[in-house]
Amino acid sequence: MKFSRDQFLEDGYVILRQVIPPQELDDLRQAYEKLVERQRVIWARERGPDDPPGGVWETSAQPRLNLGLLAGQIDAQTVSAVEIWLHENTQGVSSCLLGVDDAAVTEMMLMCNPVRDHETGGHRGWHRDFYPPHTAPLQGYADDILENGPRYVQWNLPLYDDNVLWVVPGSHSRLNTDEENAALNSDARTPVPGAVQTHLAAGDGVAYILPLLHWGSRYNARMRRTVHGGFSEYTTHKDLPYLEHLSTESQESFKRWNGRSTQKFELIEAALRAAVDGDSTAFVAALDRLHPGRGEKGRLLSTIFLSKSAKRIHHLKSPDFDSLPEQERMWATSIHPMTLQWGRPLAGRFSEQEAETLWTRFKFVDDLLQDEEDQWTPGFQGEETRYYFDQVPADLSVEAFLATF
């Protein structure tokens, strides 16, 4: 497919035509619809006592399937829902956009229309797909992208014509402008200055860089089946009971990605253990092996991510874990490889005492990322928090962190 990576890096997104080959579109629609039908049965069975008969299918503003949680539903009839993620038009293009040899499928989902309109209150307004208290300030992302390129590329692949997504070109690598903040504070569910609506025909695709300011403008009952997910260096699809249904080439790809993800997991543990030991040389070596070739800004972003990992491990090893707020418990157990978070599998590698020491080391980073009062910037997920949404403090650096060892 023809596209300009330079333009993608400048705009933060690219629209590609006929990503899904026209001759494969009908079969792919049928495969995903079978998955929807099977998931609807599960949602109906799992509904709460006060829920309507369809459960999530009837209550959600955007019913969403996660193929990573549908392992038992992937078979010979539905395996094309996975195979499309390994196509040259998706995996191959993503490798080029990320500037790597072999991008790994990280997430595979499907976004569906609700059964009734949610035009005003049921959907999210303009946002960036992260919440700084659990990841990093926006400037950390932007600096890393400008210095090293993106770590993740996200996709929308509509199976039917779709113009729901709006984007703000260039917003992935900068803070909000004053004009944008004024518009977002006024009404976060209308087009902001400079916004572009993506008009996608069935089978087209839009690929975009994670921090891009974007908006899903319509959550109504009009038919929508949009394949959604993305690529990074890692995969979270380690358990593959449907492997036998994939092509030989696809099987080898998942095995290769799983092997590489396991190696990265070990390097994350090595970096954290270096911090526990107060070994600055080993810490820097682990950072460089985690993300070879990334510069100063990239190492700083990874260090911020590791500070979040340290906090989650500390929570998970704490005897008071069950008394933490539900949101904190959920984030502590979640797996998000793009930000070096591996939940319980990683926490299980550390003793309670090691977790305490680890958090003591990284608290220096965590404290610098917070103000004394709550912060808020429009266009983000989450609520007010003491963590900075925009700027990385000038006195936070990898060198400053290592100096505390």
UniProtKB/TrEMBL annotation:
Q: Which InterPro entries match?
A: Phytyl_CoA_dOase-like
Q: One matching Pfam family, short form?
A: PhyH
Question: Which GO MF terms are attached to this record?
Answer: 2-oxoglutarate-dependent dioxygenase activity
The protein's UniProt keywords, in alphabetical order, are:
Dioxygenase, Oxidoreductase
Recorded superkingdom: Bacteria
* Family matches, as Gene3D superfamilies: q2cbj1_9rhob like domain
Is Oxidoreductase one of the keywords? Answer: yes
Q: What is this protein called?
A: Phytanoyl-CoA dioxygenase family protein
